[in-house]
Design a protein that fits this description.
Elements lengths: L7 E4 L5 H12 L3 E6 L2 H9 L5 E5 L5 H14 L5 E4 L16 H26 L5 E6 L14 H21 L4 E6 L17 H13 L9 E3 L2 E3 L2
Parallel strand pairs: 1-2, 1-4, 2-3, 4-5, 5-6, 6-7
Antiparallel strand pairs: 7-8
Bound molecules: NADP nicotinamide-adenine-dinucleotide phosphate (NAP).
NADP nicotinamide-adenine-dinucleotide phosphate binds next to α1.
Length: 233
Amino acid sequence: MARAFQKTVLVTGGNRGIGFAIAQGLLARGYEVIISARSLDSARQAAEKLQGDVIPLALDVSDDQSIEQAVNIVSQRCDRLDVLVNNAGIYPDDNVNILTISREVLDAAMQTNTFGVIRMVQAFSPLLEKSQDARVINLSSGMGALDGLTATAPSYCLSKLALNGATLMLAHSLEAKGIVVNAVCPGWVRTDMGGAAAPRSPEQGADTAIWLAAEAPRSETGKFWRDRKVISY
Ligand SMILES: NC(=O)c1ccc[n+]([C@@H]2O[C@H](COP(=O)([O-])OP(=O)(O)OC[C@H]3O[C@@H](n4cnc5c(N)ncnc54)[C@H](OP(=O)(O)O)[C@@H]3O)[C@@H](O)[C@H]2O)c1
């Protein structure tokens, strides 16, 4: 259980890659960190690698029942949620382009990368509303910016383009409730998704998300960021 003034953050897909680095960075800043992964074992293994207040949680963001169970578990342990980092994501475009991609692959990307984020915010907003400093950070991508769309990664690009739109709509809708919402591009990062040739470490990829979670002025909402600077949607 978090100490009275300790902030609590939930990082989806926090068991590896950029999510793990975000969890690690916020833990070092004194946050209580809920690391979620699709498998509880995987969340537990990630939690064991970290020192501090870490709660492992099973959560599949493409499954409403799993989200509901996660809200119940978090509500039992925490009286509020200060930060939600929607980091979980997939890149299912394998040898496809916009002329060949199937409905199934488009659907998979949208369910996790876009609809999962919207459903997570809906489900966790009652707990976020209880925070004096509530923040939502959505891990997007420059491939979802209008000038970054690539026909050979159609489901990923479209899901992140729509995530950027959802970020704007959520920011407007949650402004009156005091919840700020921003999207971030981490750059090209060495993870299972980004591959070994990527120039950035997971820690470098996590930097702007950590800054948005812990330091960015609360007046900044509905924006798209890279390297702590606003970029175009
Ligand atoms: N790497 C890059 O270069 C790059 C660039 C731009 C944006 N991004 C974005 O940054 C975020 C993190 O990427 P990454 O590179 O760290 O990816 P990664 O290493 O492939 O990790 C993806 C994470 O998402 C989780 N995940 C996938 N589907 C999920 C679901 N349905 N429910 C819950 N968790 C799920 C995975 O959990 P499991 O272990 O259960 O699979 C894993 O923890 C993603 O949103 C990605 O689109 C990455």
